[in-house]
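May I ask you to comment on the folded chain given beneath this request?
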Amino acid sequence: MVDNKKQVTEKVLQTTVAVLSIAVIAVMALVGKAIFIDSDKAPRSAVEKQLYDAQQALAKNPNNIDARLMLGFTYSQMGEHSDAQDEYSLVLKVNPNHTKAIYLLAGSYEKEGKMSKAVETYKRLKDYEPAVYQLGRIYVNQKKYKEAIKTLEAAIKKKGHGSDTLYYLGLAYEKSGDRKTAAKHYKEALKFTPDFNIAKKALKRVQ
């Protein structure tokens, strides 16, 4: 009799665990954050693999900054910008000046269409050329050409600037009516990237 009761209890526990596992997987799938629990749930796409790897790394070490940034970046790729921003914010609570976290946070705001927040966040990285370039590009797209020129001129004085920075600087000058200076920067952009077709078309336009 005791053995029978024990067997019944074990079966009930097994059933309960199975039901709970299915429920957890279903809920996570509904919100687009499936956690891969066993080999049958292995990731199939590149984004799923990124999500899986980041989750596994954080399960082992919740303080793994690189894994948390990867998780945020993956959420951003999935269009889950709010979740991405939460992950970047967790990194910034530990290190408020973490360059990559600030940069990715700004990019997430921009993708979500929160341009004011994106601009203010990029401004926090005034000594980081990629962020200065992104800020200048946004100003050009917003038709704030004076701000764009000032920002992009500062960017090309920093190490690491490339053809995109020079192209947008040329575009800002062109839109401001200074075709000569625009041509100068388009030519400089083409020195960096000779097959930069947009810059080629822009140069023909102002010559």
